[in-house]
Amino acid sequence: MQYELKINGQKRTVEAEPGTPLLWVLRDEMKLTGTKFGCGVAYCGACTVHLDGTPSRSCQTFVEDAVETDITTIEGAKGRIAEAVQAAWREKDVVQCGWCQSGQIMSAIGLLSENPKPSDAEIRDYMDGNACRCVTYVRINEAVKLASEKLEG
């Protein structure tokens, strides 16, 4: 079946079977490989993208459910908040193996879009659905706080 999707601001047509996870459409059909496969059951957050600005797990979002939404992947993450998060990630040297980082960054952008000045507890709660195999949670938390400070200044 053919679907028209709006991905990173561009309309794209894709051929996929109903029930195909958006993750596989993005990675295999659109070649947007920044979104990672981690667990396939929406637990780890590696596949996080934004649907209409809200962080969503693309491994459990079917392609037909993403029609008529604005899909943003890590490749399309732009704007003031995304730039602050990405700069903070570099400054705090968050990345170790890197597998989870696109999902972590997309969730952090979502958090700061909703709550520009989150407390440590709010950061932990919001980011709780994103697993990091390398356990860089302290640096992730610090980076989110730094991004929040950058947005204030």
Structural commentary:
The chain folds into 2 domains: 2-74, Ubiquitin-like (UB roll) (Roll); 80-152, DNA polymerase, domain 1, CATH 1.10.150.120. It is 41% helix and 15% strand. It is built from 6 helices and 5 strands; from the N terminus they run ββαββαβαααα. The protein has a 5-stranded mixed beta sheet with strand order 2-1-5-3-4, with helices on both faces. A hairpin with a 2-residue loop joins strand 1 (2-7) and strand 2. It is globular.
Please name the defining characteristics of this protein.
globular; five-stranded mixed sheet; single chain; iron; DNA polymerase, domain 1; oxidoreductase; 2Fe-2S; metal ion binding; 6 helices; alpha+beta; 153 residues; Beta-grasp_dom_sf
Low-confidence stretches: none
In CATH terms, what is the architecture of the largest domain? Roll
Structure annotation, total helices: 6
The main β sheet shows up as: 5 strands, mixed
- CATH fold-level label of the largest domain: Ubiquitin-like (UB roll)
Please list the strands of the largest sheet in the order they lie side by side. Answer: 2-1-5-3-4
Quote the average pLDDT: 97
Protein name: (2Fe-2S)-binding protein
InterPro entries: 2Fe-2S-bd (IPR002888), 2Fe-2S-bd_dom_sf (IPR036884), 2Fe-2S_ferredoxin-like_sf (IPR036010), 2Fe-2S_ferredoxin-type (IPR001041), 2Fe2S_fd_BS (IPR006058), Beta-grasp_dom_sf (IPR012675), Diverse_Oxidoreductases (IPR051452)
Organism: Gimibacter soli
Keywords: 2Fe-2S, Iron, Iron-sulfur, Metal-binding, Oxidoreductase
